[in-house]
Structures are given as C-alpha cells and as structure tokens.
Design brief:
Number of domains: 2
Number of helices: 17
CATH class of the largest domain: Mainly Alpha
CATH topology of the largest domain: MetI-like fold
Radius of gyration: 27 Å
CATH superfamily of the largest domain: MetI-like
Number of strands: 2
Mean pLDDT: 78
Largest sheet: 2 strands, antiparallel
Distance between the termini: 5 Å
Length: 400
C-alpha cells in the first residue's frame, strides 16, 4: 500500500502540473488575449479601463515575455523568473527587458508581505518595478480584476467556500443516508410496489430541470406561504442579517438574524432541491449494482451456508455493491468546493459556483484560474480517496 500511495502521489503532482499548463494556455490563447474583455463592457464608459491600468495588468501578467516565461511567473512566482534571467543573461535594453533583477529577500520584504499581492511591487536598482507575485504553488493568485477589484483572489475564494461547503456537505450526507437503504431495499424487493414507487421517483428526479424545481420551491414555500399568512421560507441568501422578515419562519420561531438557526433555515430550500436530484440518481445506481451482486456465486454460497438473510444482504452483498456508487460519490468532493451553479443562481446563494460564473462573465481571469487550479487539486485527491475506499468496502481489492 505504501509503494502504491507513493506512486499515486507522484502521478497526482504530474496531473496537476499538466492541468496548470492547460488552464493557463487556454486562457492565454483566447481571442483578443486575456485583457480583451476588460475594455468597455455593455457600452458603459465607466467600466472601461484606462491605458495605465492596462499597462499595469500587462506587466503583472508578464505579457511582454515569451509564453513559457509567463507561465513560470504565474506558477512559481516572479523570483524564479529573475533567477532564470541571471542564468540566460538579461537583455540590456529596458524597453525590451524580459527580466528585472530581484532577490528572494526582496520578495520576502515587509513591503511585499504586508501588501501581500501581485500588484504590490518593489523598485529594484534599475528603477523598474517588480510585482510581488509568489506563484500559485503558494496559492498567490493575484488580485481580482472586476468582481472585487484590488482584493486578493485567495481571500475572495475563502469567503465563498464556507457557504458552499455547508450546502453541499448537507446535501451529500442526506442523499447518502437515504439513497443507500432505498437502493438496497428496492433491489431486494424487485418488482414490488415499493420498487415501482422508487423507480418512478428516480425517473422524476433525474429528468426534472433543476432551475424549474428551484423556482417552484420559491413560489410555493416563499411567495404562496406569505400570501396565505403561513411562516414562509427565505428565497435567497445565507442569512437574514441585520433583521428577519416579518412573518417568516425565523420570525415565527424567534430565530435571531445571523445565528446558526438562521443559516439552517436558509439552507432548507436549496438542500431540498439538490438532495432530490442526488437522491434520485444515487438510489438508481445502488439498485442496479445491488441487483448484479445478488446474482453472484458468493451470495448464493453464503445463503447455502445458512447465514441469515440480513447478514447476506448487508455484510456480503451491500459492501460490494457500493463500489460503483463510491466512484460517483468521491467526485462530489471537488463539487463541494466548486458549488452548484444552477442552485446558487436560482437561490441567489453566494457560493463558489455563482462566483465562478460571475468571474467568467466579467472576464476576471485571476479568479477563474485560481478556481480551476484548486479544483484540479481536489479532483486528483478525490481519485486517491476513491481507490483507498475500494479496499475498505471490497476485501478482494488490494494494492500490494
């Protein structure tokens, strides 16, 4: 197992490295360049960036350098570009200079550390400014361009992660707790009334448009409940701070704005919508896998030995039937970080999915690239977790 984990760790590093190259290349070769969308947006002169701002962004992005040097500056920081410049030799003309001499102490200076950003530069001996970028390896993604101008991308991501983690973790746990038993019972009692009900429910959940169901929940539990004088649910956001709406469920239960109960009430509607979608699909996968396992020879052998049916089902059949479901579930780990785009949009939920869409729509490439980089790391971690879980649920699998 140790040798396997070491090999997988090396593979994970290679996959993440290739992913960063793909992410950076795709965004760099976009028509018009990475700064093309930052001109006048929607005909609004106020949204047009100045020439000075554009030059500053071009310097921070290293657009005056060859492509491979731009990538190195983004990936490992500007200091290593300077070191490479010392090895290759700096061009003498400042107008075409590809490298600006700096030292590691410059990048660790109080000026860079306190400002803590790509745009916080220090002046070197030749009078030119070098940005303090330390690279995505150290999770320095620079500053946001348009979503939150001047703010560090890592800080923006950190603010959006907790709401998304609360929502998706709740959904995954509830879906698993319900989907696994339903799938097992439906398979054991195949073609029973319960099986037909579960199958119909599964087809409905899989085929139902998420955005439509979300709007129906808002209309029913938000608008109609309010019209009928019933305690209604909030239709968006994560809390009711600074005050709760009169007649709302929080008002009826005397829940303080911004409290844990307030956050929980705001999770109810988006959780119902996502849980129904996940539950429908996962229960169908569990049922299909369980039906296949129940026909295996070792299950018939266990029954022939006189084992109790409950033992045969839950100890022998169910564990092996979990393998296909584990493959699907582990890839929800990146989803817990990246959020649910449609759900967060419908419920105005300030999570990672909505942030990603906003960043794409406003050409905020530092946020987009930071988002994709972290998501790539989580994907390779999820695959490793899935492989380890295989050995736990199925004794036939060993990585010796």
């Amino acid at each position: 197992m140790t040798n396997y984990l070491i090999r997988r760790a090396l593979q994970m590093v290679l996959v993440v490295f290739v992913s960063t190259i793909v992410i950076y290349t795709i965004l760099q070769i976009a028509p018009g360049g990475p700064l093309d969308g930052l001109g006048r947006q929607n005909g609004d002169q106020k949204s047009e960036i100045s020439d000075a701002q554009r030059q500053r962004m071009e310097q921070n992005l290293g657009l005056n350098r060859p492509g491979y040097l731009r990538y190195l500056g983004w990936a490992v920081g500007e200091y290593w570009i300077d070191e490479l410049g010392d090895i290759l030799g700096n061009p003498g003309d400042p107008e075409t200079q590809l490298f600006i001499t700096g030292t590691w102490s410059d990048y660790q200076s109080p000026t860079c550390q306190e400002a803590g950003g790509t745009n916080a530069g220090f002046v070197v001996a030749d009078g030119l400014s070098r940005p303090c970028a330390r690279g995505i390896v150290l999770f320095d993604f620079g500053e946001s361009w348009s979503v939150a101008p001047g703010r560090q991308v890592i800080d923006i991501l950190a603010d959006r992660v907790p709401p998304t983690v609360r929502l998706l973790t709740t959904v995954v746990i509830l879906s698993l707790v319900v989907a696994i038993p339903i799938g097992i019972i439906s398979a054991v009692r195949q073609y029973s009334v319960l099986d037909y009900i579960v199958t119909t429910f599964g087809f409905f959940g899989i085929s139902m448009p998420v955005f439509w169901f979300g709007l129906m929940l808002i209309i029913l539990f938000g608008q109609k409940f309010r019209e009928l004088g019933l305690p209604f649910f909030p239709s968006g956001g994560t809390n009711s701070f600074p005050r709760v709406a009169r007649g709302s469920l929080q008002d009826f239960l005397a829940i303080d704005p911004g409290s844990a109960g307030d956050y929980a009430v705001h999770l109810v509607l988006p959780t119902i919508m996502l849980t129904l979608v996940y539950l429908a699909g996962w229960s169908r996968f569990m049922r299909a896998s369980m039906l296949e396992v129940l026909r295996q020879d070792y299950v018939r052998t266990a029954r022939a030995k006189g084992l109790r049916e409950r033992t045969v089902i839950y100890r022998h059949a169910a564990r092996n039937a979990l393998i296909p479901l584990i493959t699907i579930i582990v890839f929800q780990i990146p989803g817990i970080f990246s959020g649910a785009v449609l759900t967060e949009s419908v419920f105005s939920y300030p999570g990672m999915g909505r942030l990603f869409i906003d960043a794409l729509g406003r050409n905020d490439w530092p946020i987009v690239m930071g988002f994709l980089y972290i998501n790539a790391i989580l994907v390779v971690i999820a695959t490793l977790i899935g492989d380890v879980l295989y050995t736990i649920v199925d004794p036939r699998i060993r990585f010796e």
